[in-house]
Amino acid sequence: MLFEIVTSLIAGGIAGTAYLKRQGVGDDKTRIERIAANAGLVTRDGKQIRIYRRTKGKGYTEYVYQIPLGLSFADFEKKKHVFEDGLNIKRSTFDLSIHDLTDINFRSNPIPQIKTILQKKKKQKKEIEMAFDGMLKIRVYDEPMPDWLLFDESMLAKCNGWEIPIGISRTQFIKHDFDAIPHMIVAGATRKGKSAFLKLLVASLIARHPDDVRFTILDLKGGLAFAKFRDAQQVEAVAKNPIEALEALRAIRDEMNSRLEYYLDAGIEDVKSAGVKERHFVIVDEAAQIASAGETDKEIKRLKVECEHILAEIARVAGALGYRLIFCTQYATADTLPRQIKQNADAKLCFRLQTEIASQVVLGEGETDAAHLPLIPGRAVYVTDRKQIVQCAYISSDDIDRLIGPHINIRARKDNDEGGKNVEKGNCEGTAPRSYSLIISET
């Protein structure tokens, strides 16, 4: 009797394993090696990656490979999306548990029973992470990252100093420290999470540093994205066109030069050693609207060129003076992302972009990850001294109101003339006096 049970279990196990293998389950090692070979990750003498260790963790399996001489980790990382797509071809990840398998009666034909269990299956895209420490590590996750993360105020409690919450990675809560890395480039196609992140950034800083933070916002898409913030006492200006942008940037340049001269005379190294608590954030959204390349109006082009020069100066020298540049664009090209700004902004938060070329413009040569992110709002590549895939937190309108409400002032708003130019007396030669209208913001 015992012999019959054992042989039935063995036979059923073999049949079940064969069926699951045909369904594409449990064979990631072989798939990875085949994908590498088919993707050309083979040396001239035909050597391929060789498995060194396979480890099962909670929610993932890690495969460690030896890379043959002649290939580099960068060769594999560039083709991460090829591995990820290959692991998901004709694949379903099934909702099978140990309990499910123990319910199978292997004395009878197990195949129909397995098929019944597999009716519970759910389609899931497997995701991978790659790392290198002398060995190629490919971690294959059983389930995708959460595709939604709602902000809550406990995130602010996890931040220290000039840190702000960003979201989560596979393994941890992610935050950015603007005193450690003062300037950031934020890029992403329309409705992929860029504007939502900027609102999270501004609201978080106002909530955490209401007395020490200042903002100059160049919202060259009309000003609507930052309408909630324009009457916060921490916001010095919201510029909506190149003329207003240049006026705001000139004021920053004058202040910056005065501070630099004072620090030099006093032998002060930076804002920290000066004991200055204040930080001034300059947010540019959208960079393409301030780019001088392609501008046909000579006067507007002259204004934009001066704006670009001041922004480049902020990126080069103003970090030590307490200024923080957040430079944002939907259209990542060499024209919209100036070299001086890219070189001096050591943090990048890049949401999905439409092409590999655009991804490389933001993240660097060979870095195409942003073009292969899933179509999930808030999913981004976050780069500092390392690269991480993150799901950014979404902050609701109600949360913004709650955080900034105590800091809203009733103030006079500048009206514009028909051409969108400021008309304040004394602002520009030959202009008419500016009129004001009373704005009462909801809190």
From TrEMBL:
Q: Name one Pfam family in it.
A: FtsK_SpoIIIE
- Keywords for the protein's UniProt record, in alphabetical order: ATP-binding, Cell cycle, Cell division, Nucleotide-binding, Plasmid
Q: Which residues form the FtsK domain?
A: 171-360
**A GO molecular function held by the record:** ATP binding
Binding annotation for ATP = 188-195
Q: Which domain of life is it from?
A: Bacteria
GO BP: any one term: cell division
Recorded protein name is Cell division protein FtsK
UniProt lineage:
Bacteria, Bacillati, Bacillota, Bacilli, Bacillales
